[in-house]
Design goal:
Layout lengths: L1 E10 L3 E11 L3 E5 L6 H8 L7 E6 L2 E2 L9 E4 L11 H12 L4 H14 L15 H14 L4 E5 L7 H16 L4 E4 L3 H7 L2 E6 L2 E6 L10 H9 L2
Parallel strand pairs: 3-8, 3-9, 6-7, 7-8
Antiparallel strand pairs: 1-2, 1-4, 4-5, 9-10
Length: 234
């Protein structure tokens, strides 16, 4: 994966991201960490093309993230599963494939079943989201993101609404996908998972990149900000 930021600034009422500049290449699992309000989720949304930056240039795998076609090359999983409540897990995927990707009904059904099976949900395909566990619903959301054959999957704290058992269930599924060669950029507050899963970490503070590098940096922070952060997180 290759990520390039040049002068990235994003503003709502105030600057949320401030003149970010970084080039990352050769990593497949990048974690963005930091306290609430540090700008990490905003950065993730810009990297995924969900938001356009106020100023600056952003590229992922040499794609301009503001280009209309870019969104079709990535998948996004939100903090809550974001599934359509009136559709089954299977229909949540087939609808997207038929309406936005031009799949036939047969192709969409086969693709949906493939990824639900990959996420160990074959026995839940015809259930509504309210009738499965939170972990299963989040895995279905991940299956939907995978079904469009994305270059990169973006995950915004995918376990924040789950209890420890369901968190383990979802994170285990993500690890399995990484072993299959999928590429990820994720925001997570679970440092044990970041340690095990990420091969590069970006630490945000007050809208800026305070420190970045391989996950070993979490054990030996070079900035006081990261040291303070690591002392406070589990």
């Amino acid at each position: 994966m290759k990520i390039e930021l040049d002068g990235l600034t994003h503003r709502y009422d105030v600057d949320v991201l401030r003149d970010l500049a970084i080039s990352i290449e050769g990593y497949s699992s990048i974690a963005i960490i930091g306290v609430s309000g540090s700008g990490k989720s905003t950065l993730l949304r810009i990297l995924s093309g969900l938001e356009k930056p106020t100023r600056g240039h952003v590229q992922v795998n040499s794609h301009d993230v503001t280009a209309p076609e870019y969104r079709k090359s990535v998948g996004f999983v939100f903090q809550s599963h974001n599934l359509f409540p009136h559709l089954t897990l299977l229909q949540n995927i087939t609808l997207v494939l038929e309406k936005t990707r031009g799949f036939t009904k047969k192709e969409a059904h086969e693709q949906a079943e493939k990824y639900l099976s990959l996420l160990h949900l074959s026995d839940q395909t015809h259930k509504l989201p309210r009738n499965v566990s939170g972990g299963q619903a989040q895995r279905a959301s991940l299956a939907r993101a995978l079904s469009v054959n994305p270059e990169v999957i973006f995950l915004d704290e995918p376990t924040s609404a789950l209890d420890p058992v369901l968190t383990y269930e979802v994170l285990s599924a993500i690890k399995e996908l990484r072993e299959l060669g999928m590429e990820f950029v994720l925001v997570s507050h679970v440092m044990s998972f970041v340690h095990d899963f990420a091969d590069y970490v970006v630490f945000m503070k007050d809208g800026e990149i305070a420190e970045h590098g391989p996950p070993a940096m979490l054990d030996n922070p070079q900035t006081q900000a990261l040291k303070d952060f690591m002392e406070k997180v589990p």
